[in-house]
Structure formats: structure tokens, C-alpha cells
Design goal:
heterodimer; A: about 500 residues; alpha+beta; 3 domains; two-stranded antiparallel ribbon; 21 helices; 7 strands; about 55% helix; about 10% strand; B: Rossmann fold; four-stranded antiparallel β-sheet; binds iron/sulfur cluster
């Protein structure tokens, strides 16, 4: 008979870290599966494959880094790997990155995340910063603008958060602009469901919500963190919306919640127990702080994403928060309430202050250029009637070539090796009424962008029914593209027809 | 679930069905019993018998010297043959009085019964002290001390919770000794001059609650309260908080409460009615390491081995033998250890191999610690040998309930590490 000794207690609960990590991984893979499905159905095989390569790269780099570290520090490789849970970091990091990232950039980020973010701190459980967040920050800092080839045509435009930051200052009041923003995002519903390009695993708020609820139920994550983080962002968003006088305000806090990495962070990043405080009160303050910083960075610093930096900043403050709530839980309760209330008040105050200094996005007023027959530039252009055909039904069709921008200014520009050809227009006129039936460009000598304008039905429609006997005016809507030059060329052509008709 | 603090408790599967509805097994000791000279606040005793002297069931063998008075009585009749240092269930060697059992169990009347209704409070106090009543729930704290300064007691709380897994000794004893139990609470109510008596029973025992309710239905100011089936609901602080919603610093009396365990109440009533000290008790022998888990009635001083044999022996060649429940009971490595008056259970478990991983600061331990401590932080401070920090974290207030180890998903021995921290602090204090 053998009696074994062990210190009491001699009973264990069911929860185990291994199981938690396994379920965490399953949750991550579900999110990844959704993203694969989206890229495959919307952008095709090549992009989905790219996504798979990214994931594989990250996992392989993680494994090599960990094995290498175990080897150099002379630890048993298999137990080291299985107790280090590096794959979680690798997967989270991949899911945080945009699909446009190159495998190389992701590999470097993974290496840094695992080695500097975790192993050098002493391994699993010892690190101060969330390793995945650290890796992501490295990508942001050193690989901006590097885009993987296959994904080039996938994402021509910027992601919705970049748009919100660059074009809308994270603050939109004008209903027209809101509509425009919603159009770009495909509507709040789409933002919620997640069928849009963004961080690989960050887009589907709906799915992340479900995974989060499952995690809370399974005790994989602490419920306090996501709930406080999300509700604080909602409240702060609402406060801004109210402060800046949005009439239909609900979309604004929801936009904050559903866009960018907020949901993903709430479920997978903030809840990383290693880098957040251990006490219940500490966790609440941690989530509150992260939410405030997220919103502040978004509206004030004009960065696309505040989420990442907010996490890193709060990671840094974690030891401080821990110390603040040392002691017996029920004795520090009052302190926790006070600190929470004070920080909430400060948060609301600073967010309002920040919002008051941000210009809400305004519609860019477009210049409308009017062109009259007296226009100097128009009259400086050359034009000749190439042919004149009597259609026999009381109409005549003129073919006129008129100097365009390329033909006039072209030779003066160095390296300007596009054509010097004039533009050719076909103009049909009703000879009884002297009204234009239509004007269209048949050959464009001007550069593509300028010339586009002339083919554009929206532009040429204004010539229809134009009375050549009287004064007229042509307007060009878009001054930026420089289409005015081409437009002037068309007016010049018309003047030539007018002259030919004897007015 | 509170936002800013953890739950400070946890549901633990009780496995009570193993023993709850079985008849109590009577186990008589073998040739020798070994009565430990041990009580919570004293290990020095004045011996009242001489070697070779004839003793009877109830003979006063010794009485403790020092602050508290606790007499020790013989549980069998026979011959006192001497003292012996033996391993005690506290894991320290203690002096035991060896008595050769003549197996006749002749009893003597050591003290006179007392009618609590006619007795004064002082008489009752003296009686309680003389009868050697201590907290039989496990603490072994002499009960009369609680009542010495008991004025303005609002609630006399009777702890029938039995929150440790496996243990059903109170659960079994209570229906059997219902009359004594009622007498006991009335006597104690008188001693405490308590405004009311609250009997706390787990919600999961509706039948027991009903039985108690019918028995106290006609008694004023006595009520039965169901409490949640969580650990450590039976711990004094947790129970007092559950019932009064107040927290105290050192003693429950600060918030007007006195807490007594069911076995203590019954033992006291037994002494009052029959004039006999406690010489035997009901012990739960349970766990997956025992052939026939049962509740047994055992004389104090019977070696655990004899009790285990009466329950069919072990199920495996390697077991963990625990004096008490699996959470707070200490693992004993010899089954010569004897049943003491505070032994409410013997738990025998098959060993389980754990594969621990590093602490990942999940905070589960802090969330659940019933004392409101932060074990993970205490362990960190202890590793850094930071005494100031350990003090700030109130490491000394740990009661070794074991919950932090129970909940730790990384399967670390958190409780043991907190113990190490406490030891570091205690050494510094001396
Ligand atoms: S053993 Fe101590 S530290 Fe651990 S939960 Fe119990 S009281 Fe708290
Ligand atoms: S429960 Fe275990 S893993 Fe979690 S913080 Fe406590 S000691 Fe660390």
C-alpha cells in the first residue's frame, strides 16, 4: 500500500489552460474560415490562396522561432512548444493584418512578436505587451505601402477605417456625407456582417460577437473586458454624436463598434490574460482606459485605428493598475468605484474636448467652370472643318478637328510623349432651326483623363438642342481632372461650325 | 457576479450521493485506542491518570493547561498503558494516550445532566467548558469561549452547510438526533441571548430543510435558511456574509453573530441531557479510493486503518489518504493516524497526474478567493521575496481553503505557494 503525499487541496476544477487555449484557437479558426470564405467568393481563388499562405507563413515562422529559442536555451523542444502556446499569437497576428500584407512582412512581424514580444520577457505568462499587438505595430511602422501583388486589384480603394480617418475625420454630421460614408461601407448591416475588405479577421462584428459570447460562456475569456470595452466605446460614440448634433445619431457609435479592430480586440486582444490586470477591478479599469484611448486616437490623431495603440498603452499601464488594486477585494471596492467613475468622467470630458476641435467632414464643393464662346483660351485654339455632309433631311453633320490640350500645350512639356493629335468631333446640326442635334468626340488626341470627359454623355448632353444663333454657355463639373481643356476644345469645334453656318 | 470583485466562491461537485443515504456503520475499535492530547490552542496537558490505571468510557484523562480549558475523556473502557508520540492528522507528531480496550465499553457518569431551562447562563458556560465541547466542524476551537462575551447577539447561526465535497456526516447525523439538536439550539440561544437562530442548510437538500422546518415550526425566533451550494459556504466568514450581508474583521461577534456547527450543537445537547462527554462521532469515509464509501460511527482514538477496513479497504495500491475533505483536509501518509473529535471525514482518492503550465495571470484565483485575496499577486510577491508587498496583499489572511488551487486552470499549486508566502512572512515576524 502506498500513500501519496500532496499539499491540500486534493481536488481540481475542470477548467484547464490547455482547454482554454484550444477553444481560443477554434474560435480564431472560425473567424479565419469566414474570412477565407469572403475572399474566395468575392475576390477569387488567388486571394484566398494568398490568405492561406499568410497564415502558413506566420505559423511556420512562429514554430521556427520557438524551436530555435528552445534549442539555444537548451530546453526540451516538445514540452516547451506545447507550454508556450505560440500558435495563438501567430494566428491572432495574421487575423489582425490586412489581406494586402506580404508574407515577408508578416513573417518579420511574427518573428518579432514571438521573440521580442514574448520569449525574451521570459515566455508565456511573463510578457508585458500583447505579442500580437506588438507584431502588428511593427508591420504598421515599417511596411506601410508594401502591398502583395495578387491583392492589388482586390482592394483598389482604402479600407473603410482609412476612409473614415482620411476623408471623414472620424466625425461626420452632414447627412449627405453620412450617406456617402455608408455607401462606401455598404451600409451598417454590411459593416456588421463583415463582407468587406479590412483586417483579415477583423471585419465580421456579427461573427466576433457570437464567438465572444461563446467564449464568455465557456470561461475562455473574462466577461468584464469585452463588455466594458464595447459599452464604453458605445457611450463615448453616443456622447460625440450628441455633442456634435447629429440628428440621426445611433449609426455613429455603431460605426465605431463595427469598424476596424474594435470587435476583434474586445474578444481576442484585451482579453489576453497575460497582459491585462488579474483583479476584477483592475480588468474593468483596463477595459475602460482602452476604450477611451481608442476613441481619442480615432477622432484626434487621425489614424485609421486607435485600437492597436490603445491596447499597447494599456498593457504598459497594467502593472500600475495592478498595484492600485492590491489588497482585499471587498475592501478596495469603494476605491474601485471611485476610480472608475473618475476615469469615466475624464474620458467623456476629453472625448468631448477632442470632438470640439475636430472639423466635421464637409462635402468638398466642386468648382463649376463655365465656358462661353468669348473665352480667350477657346479662341486661341485652332480648328478646321474636315467635312460637311448634308444628310438630306434638313440636318448637316460636320466633322471638326480642334486643337486640344495635347496638341496645343504638349510640345512644351518635357517627357510628354503622348500624342499631339487634335481632337475630332462629330457635330450634327438642324439647319432649319440652327440647333445642335448632338456633339460627340470621335477621336481624342488629349490624354485619357482629359479625353474621358468628352466621351462622357453627361457632359455632351448639354450640347443637344443648343441654339447656335444665340449666346451659349457650357459648364464643366470637375475642375480637378483638368477636363476643362478638352471641354474648351469641344467648344472651339462648335464655334467653327457656328462660323460655317454664318453666325 | 459583481463588476469590481470576483465571486469569492465556487460550485464544486459534491459527490454526496456516495454516502448520503446509507445507514451509519458502527465501527468498534480494536485492541488499542490512541487518544490524542491535542486541542486547537494548547498542546500541554495535565495528565489525570496513572499508567496501568483502569479507565472507563468517560473517564477524564487529561486537561489542557494554559489559556483555554479543554478536558480529554476516554472513549473506551480498559487500561491506560502509557503515552506515545504519533503522527497526528495535523501532520505534526503529538502525544497520544494509549488505552488497552477491554471491549466492555463500561461507562461512568462523569458529570450530572443539566436542564438548560432552569440553569443560569453562567452555569451553562461552566458546563460547556467542563464537557469539553469544541468546534467539531473542523476548527476545534473551544466553544465556551465564543459565549463568554456574547452580548447583543442578533443571530445564532447554526452551520449545517457541509460545503466540502464528499462529507455527509452532519447530513446523516441531523435527522437521527433531531430532538437533541433542537434542545441544543435552544440552550445555545439562551447562552447567547440571541434574538434569533438561523439554521443554514444547502438549497440542494430540500428534504432536510423541510424536516428541520417541521421540527422548529413551533419555536419562536428559529428559522431555516437555504444557502447556495457553493464552496466555501460553510466557512464562517462566507456564511456570516451570506446571512447578514456584513463583513467582520476578526470575530463574527463584531456583526452580532455566533456560528456553531451541527455536530457541536448535538454534542452539547448530548452532554446536557445524558451527562456524557463526546467519545464517538460520525465520520464520512468516502472518495473513489475506498471500496464501500459510508458514514461510520467511530470512537475517538480509533486508527484510520481500522475504519478503512470496515469500509472494505482501498480500491487501488496507490491512494491519497486525506484527513478531512478533499479541499482542506491534510494528506496523511500513514493510516495509523487516529480519528480525532474534529475528524469529520476521511477522504480516499485515487491519484490524478496533473500537467501544469505557467501561470498566465488569468485571475481565476483572485476571482474566487473567499477571503478576497489575490493569490496570483501574493505568489508573485513571494517569488520576488517582497515582504512589503505580501503584507499589502494580506497574505497572512489566507485560510488555506484551497479554492485557488481548485480553480487554477494552469493546474498550479496556488494554495501551497500562498502557504510558502505566509511562512516567509511569519519567519520575518519572529
Ligand atoms: S487558499 Fe487562501 S489564497 Fe487561496 S483561495 Fe483560499 S483563502 Fe484565498
Ligand atoms: S488561477 Fe492559476 S493561472 Fe490563473 S492567475 Fe491564478 S495562479 Fe495564475
Amino acid at each position: 500500500m502506498k500513500f501519496l503525499y500532496s499539499a491540500s487541496p486534493n481536488l481540481r476544477g475542470k477548467l484547464s489552460t490547455r482547454r482554454i487555449m484550444l477553444e481560443l484557437m477554434i474560435g480564431l479558426l472560425v473567424v479565419y474560415g469566414f474570412s477565407l470564405f469572403y475572399y474566395f467568393t468575392e475576390h477569387g481563388m488567388a486571394v484566398a490562396l494568398h490568405s492561406l499562405i499568410l497564415m502558413a507563413t506566420s505559423l511556420i515562422v512562429m514554430a521556427i522561432t520557438e524551436v530555435g529559442f528552445a534549442y539555444f536555451t537548451k530546453q526540451d523542444i516538445i514540452p516547451f512548444l506545447s507550454n508556450s502556446f505560440g500558435w495563438i499569437t501567430a494566428i491572432i497576428l495574421t487575423l489582425m493584418c490586412p489581406i494586402t500584407i506580404t508574407p515577408f512582412a508578416l513573417g518579420v512581424a511574427t518573428f518579432c512578436a514571438i521573440l521580442f514580444g514574448k520569449l525574451l520577457f521570459g515566455g508565456f505568462g511573463q510578457n508585458i505587451f500583447n505579442p500580437a499587438a506588438l507584431g502588428r505595430a511593427i508591420v504598421l511602422a515599417s511596411f506601410t505601402g508594401v502591398v502583395a501583388n495578387v491583392t492589388e486589384d482586390v482592394i483598389t480603394g482604402a479600407t473603410i477605417t482609412t476612409k473614415m480617418a482620411n476623408d471623414f475625420n472620424w466625425l461626420v454630421v452632414d447627412p449627405n456625407m453620412i450617406e456617402k460614408l455608408m455607401k462606401a461601407a455598404g451600409g451598417l448591416q454590411n459593416l456588421f456582417v463583415g463582407f468587406y475588405p479590412g483586417g483579415i479577421g477583423e471585419t465580421s462584428a456579427l461573427l466576433l460577437c457570437c464567438v465572444g459570447i461563446f467564449f464568455i460562456w465557456r470561461k475562455v475569456i473574462d466577461w468584464r473586458l469585452p463588455i466594458i470595452y464595447l459599452s464604453t466605446i458605445f457611450v463615448l460614440g453616443s456622447v460625440i454624436a450628441w455633442y456634435s448634433g447629429m440628428s440621426d445619431w445611433l449609426w455613429y457609435p455603431l460605426f465605431h463598434l463595427f469598424s476596424g479592430g474594435v470587435m476583434f480586440a474586445a474578444v481576442f486582444m484585451l482579453t489576453d490574460p497575460v497582459t491585462s490586470p488579474t483583479s476584477a477591478a483592475g480588468k474593468c479599469i483596463f477595459a475602460l482606459g482602452a476604450a477611451i484611448i481608442t476613441v481619442l486616437i480615432r477622432i484626434k490623431a487621425n489614424l485609421p485605428e486607435g485600437v492597436l495603440y490603445s491596447i499597447l498603452i494599456m498593457n504598459m499601464l497594467t502593472p500600475m493598475i495592478e498595484r492600485a488594486f492590491d489588497g482585499k477585494q471587498y475592501q478596495i471596492l469603494k476605491k474601485a468605484y471611485i476610480v472608475f467613475a473618475v476615469i469615466s468622467a475624464l474620458g467623456i470630458g476629453s472625448v468631448v474636448l477632442a470632438a470640439s476641435q475636430v472639423e466635421p467632414a464637409k462635402e468638398k464643393v466642386k468648382e463649376v467652370i463655365k465656358i462661353t464662346p468669348q473665352d480667350e483660351y477657346v479662341n486661341s485654339l485652332e480648328a478646321t472643318i474636315e467635312s460637311e455632309v448634308d444628310n438630306g433631311d434638313g440636318t448637316k453633320t460636320f466633322t471638326v478637328s480642334a486643337q486640344g490640350f495635347a496638341a496645343k500645350e504638349g510640345p512644351n512639356l518635357p517627357d510628354y510623349n503622348h500624342g499631339f493629335e487634335p481632337n475630332v468631333f462629330e457635330i450634327k446640326v438642324d439647319t432649319a432651326t440652327n440647333k445642335v442635334v448632338y456633339l460627340k468626340a470621335t477621336k481624342i488626341g488629349d490624354t485619357e483623363y482629359l479625353g474621358d470627359k468628352l466621351l462622357n454623355a453627361k457632359y455632351t448632353v448639354q450640347f443637344e438642342g443648343l441654339d447656335l444663333q444665340s449666346e451659349f454657355e457650357v459648364s464643366v463639373n470637375d475642375a480637378i481632372t483638368g477636363a476643362t481643356y478638352s471641354a474648351k476644345s469641344s467648344v472651339r469645334a462648335l464655334l467653327e461650325v457656328r462660323k460655317a453656318l454664318g453666325f | 457576479m459583481s463588476l469590481f470583485k470576483g465571486r469569492m466562491r465556487q460550485y464544486i461537485p459534491g459527490h454526496k450521493e456516495l454516502t448520503a443515504h446509507k445507514d451509519v456503520l458502527e465501527v468498534l475499535p480494536g485492541k488499542k485506542v490512541f487518544i490524542p492530547l491535542y486541542t486547537a490552542y494548547s498542546t500541554t496537558f495535565e495528565l489525570l491518570v496513572k499508567e496501568g490505571e483502569q479507565v472507563f468510557v468517560g473517564t477524564k484523562l487529561a486537561v489542557s493547561k494554559g489559556k483555554v480549558v479543554v478536558p480529554i475523556y476516554s472513549s473506551v473502557s480498559g487500561t491506560f498503558v502509557g503515552e506515545q508520540k504519533m503522527m497526528h492528522h495535523t501532520l505534526k507528531p503529538q502525544t497520544h494516550l494509549v488505552i488497552e480496550n477491554d471491549e466492555k465499553y463500561e461507562a461512568i457518569q462523569v458529570f450530572q445532566p443539566l436542564d438548560y431551562q432552569n440553569a443560569s447562563r453562567e452555569e451553562l458556560l461552566a458546563f460547556m467548558m467542563n464537557a469539553g465541547i469544541v468546534g467539531y466542524g473542523g476548527a476545534g476551537f473551544p466553544t465556551y469561549i465564543k459565549y463568554q462575551n456574547a452580548d447583543k447577539v442578533e443571530k445564532l447561526i447554526i452551520n449545517a452547510v457541509e460545503c466540502e465535497p464528499y462529507i455527509t456526516s452532519d447530513f446523516t447525523l441531523l435527522p437521527e438526533k433531531m430532538d437533541l439538536f433542537v434542545t441544543g439550539i435552544l440552550a445555545m440561544k439562551k447562552m447567547a441571548q440571541a434574538l434569533e437562530v438561523v439554521i443554514a442548510v444547502k438549497n440542494t437538500y430540500p428534504k432536510l430543510i423541510q424536516l428541520l422546518e417541521t421540527n422548529v415550526a413551533n419555536i419562536a425566533d428559529v428559522r431555516v435558511v437555504g444557502v447556495p451550494n457553493v464552496y466555501p459556504m460553510g466557512w464562517e466568514r462566507t456564511l456570516v456574509y451570506q446571512i447578514t450581508k456584513k463583513r467582520y474583521d476578526r470575530l463574527p461577534l463584531e456583526v452580532g453573530a455566533i456560528v456553531n456547527n451541527v455536530t457541536t450543537v448535538i454534542a452539547f445537547a448530548h452532554a446536557l441531557v445524558h451527562g456524557k462527554p463526546m467519545v464517538e462521532r460520525v465520520v464520512t469515509v468516502s472518495g473513489d479510493g475506498i471500496q464501500n464509501p459510508s458514514n461510520v460511527r467511530v470512537r475517538i482514538g480509533t486508527p484510520v486503518r481500522e475504519v478503512v477496513e470496515a469500509c472494505g479497504g482501498y480500491t487501488s495500491d496507490e491512494v491519497k489518504l486525506i484527513a478531512g475533505g478533499p479541499m482542506m483536509g491534510k494528506t496523511i501518509v500513514k493510516d495509523e493516524v487516529v480519528i480525532d473529535c474534529v475528524s469529520n471525514a476521511i477522504t480516499v482518492l485515487k491519484p490524478v497526474v496533473e500537467r501544469p503550465v505557467a501561470c498566465f495571470r488569468c485571475g481565476q484565483c483572485s476571482d474566487h478567493c473567499p477571503a478576497g485575496l489575490q493569490p496570483v499577486r501574493i505568489v508573485q510577491a513571494s517569488k520576488a521575496k517582497d515582504k512589503k508587498m505580501m503584507e499589502r496583499l494580506h497574505a497572512l489572511d489566507c485560510v488555506e481553503c484551497g479554492l485557488c488551487t481548485y480553480v487554477c486552470p494552469s493546474r498550479l499549486d496556488v494554495t501551497e505557494n500562498v502557504r510558502i508566502a505566509r511562512r516567509q512572512l511569519q519567519i520575518g515576524k519572529k
